[in-house]
Amino acid sequence: MIALIARLLKVLNSQDSPSQISLAMVIAMIIGLTPLNSPHNLLFLFLVLVLRVNLTMFLLTLAVFSLIAYLVDPISNALGLYLLELPALNGLWTEFYNNTLMRLIGFNNTLLLGSLVLALILSIPGFFAGRFIVINYREYIMAWVKKSRVALWFKSGKIYSAYSQFSS
Amino acid sequence: MNKWIRWQGIGAFAVVLLVWFLLVDTLVKAAIENFGSSAVGAKVELASADLSLAPLGITLEQLVVTNPERPMENIVEAGLIELELDAANLLRRKIIADTMQINNLRFNTPRKSSGALATTKAEEQAQQKEMPFTLPGVSLPNTDKLVEEQKAGLQKEVDSIQQNITAIKTKWQKKQDELPSKADVDNYKKRFKAAKAEKNQLKKIKALNDLRDDIKKDLRAFKGLNKELDSDINSLKQEIRRAKNLPTKQADQLLADLGLNTSSSEITAMLMSGKLDQWVDQVKAMIGTSANLSGDKASTPARGEGQWILFDEYNPLPNLLIKTTQISGILDAAGESLSFTGEIKNITDQPKILGEPTTIKLTGSSSAGGSIIIDGLTDRTTELATDKLTIDVSELALNNFSLSDRPELSLLLNQGQANSNITVYLIDGRLDANATSLFKQLNLTATSIENNKTSEIIKSVLNSVNEFNLDISATGTLDEPSLSITSDLDKLLKEGLGQQLNQEKAKLKSSIQAELQDSLNTKLGPLEEQLGGINAIKQEINKKKDELDAIRR
Lengths: 168, 553
Description:
The structure holds two protein chains of two kinds.
Chain A: H1 2-13, H2 18-33, H3 40-50, H4 55-84, H5 90-97, H6 100-105, H7 110-147, H8 149-155, H9 158-167
Helix pairs in contact in A: 1-9, 2-3, 2-4, 2-7, 4-7, 7-8
Chain B: H1 8-40, E1 44-53, E2 56-67, E3 70-84, H2 87-91, E4 95-110, H3 121-129, H4 144-178, H5 182-197, H6 201-222, H7 225-256, H8 264-294, E5 320-333, E6 336-348, H9 351-354, E7 358-365, E8 371-379, E9 386-404, E10 410-427, E11 430-447, H10 453-463, E12 468-476, E13 481-487, H11 488-552
Parallel strand pairs in B: 4-5
Antiparallel strand pairs in B: 1-2, 2-3, 3-4, 5-6, 6-7, 7-8, 8-9, 9-10, 10-11, 11-12, 12-13
């Protein structure tokens, strides 16, 4: 747990841009919320490896959202079922169903569609929220931490030792 | 651009793909085992899987499918399975293949470990299934109670005769009292003497005439008495005679209800029950597996799996379709190995979309000249689920084929030949199956742990059998079939056991008869004496009549 917090702090304090950190979180959220063995995750994995996103933040966020997914699955499933059974979209789904790529993705699975839609909806506000948090953390919290007595006490603790280890 | 692109990432992604490519065979193997196990309801095991990309195809080695009804047996074992897949349909998550080759197929092979998914339930059920077996016996039950009941019946009969004798005796004593008494006869004698001594002729004649008329009047009372008395005495004699015959009749009646404690027609059924259960389980497993594969499954998806919603396809195809499967292998039947080849058409999980039934045709032959033809069909294209199977066996050599493994009576066909015609129809869950078999040129060995006269007779009958037929029919449902078995063996066993039964019955009859007769004789003695008393009344009456006649004359 201590190592986890230390890694998180390292990422937040690193030279990576807030956008890179936030994008890593968003991609991890998409992969974490959707079924892991879905074909679309191959594309997102490619993006994670090829784009300069923070891999540590990606892995940390992936672990968190994988746990959240377990709780959110029923909602995702219900959303997917609702969308797939919506008469207004029947034509679209029928076209997709007869399309090889869309069949490969497995759009007609309620959990996959529901979780993907949910993840994509959350990705945009999630990206901006993540950026906001990183920017403000660095501007206010990091500076305060460096100056305060609490920081001095904190620096003597285990978390800071672990953080130093990871930093070096 | 370099700020955002990590060129090494492309290499890392390539490594991921390479790892997937190296592991894909293991993943395919795991997928087949998991899917197969859940479809069959018992373990499906695979030694190895090899996915090739060009051309797209898959090769499976040593596929083993457990019989869910008998987890220590496999329904089928396949040495090698090869099929080429349609790539476009595979991307659409459909497994479509024109042909599949299955080699080294074997059926009903034993397993070293249980293949049950639910641990011991199937094994327990299989163990509990065997019908209890009691060797038929001719030992007759204890008849003491019945004999006592018969004695009570005899007593009633004796009491009835006693009552009749008493009634008749009373009747005749009364009649006797109504007849002229000794005093009356003496009086007539006096009157006769007096009349004879009368000197006046007219008075003499008148006195004699009067005496004659009086005697005539009295003699009228005797008219018909003898006949009536004889009739009464005869009827009593008849009743006593009938009573004397009762022990024989009662012994016969008692023994008429006794016989073999098992109908001989049940012997073959009990002998065969173990084997029949095995064959029924094998048929159930084959039909059940085929039905599971192609049936409409409406199951709740597990958490984390979601539900697949289907839409209209422009070119509808099932998710799984193997159009033609060529098979070859070895069929072990009755101790004989037959090599067979055959073809299965339209293996599919969605027969309604395909619109055609799944069919199987196999022909096999053995080195000893026997042959087997199997023709089957599974039709789930309509709501009326239909399964048909016909098996024709011709001159199949039998070697060390066990018909029964029961220690109470085991039956081994050392050698012989079998001809059999089996038809199984399962239409909408209703079973109609018939198997007609003729076993000939037989060398049988029957053994039993029981050591009594009956088991010796049964063993002797079975060991001498050279030929027998066996007809089995089944109705009801596949889960609870109702079997009817008839065989020549029943008739032979009935004859053999029947002779022993008759001997035992004769012994018992004479013992019961003797006991009842003894009991009756002690009771009939006094009755016969009383009958003698009635005879004495007859003699008295006749004596009186004779006396009166003498006086009248």
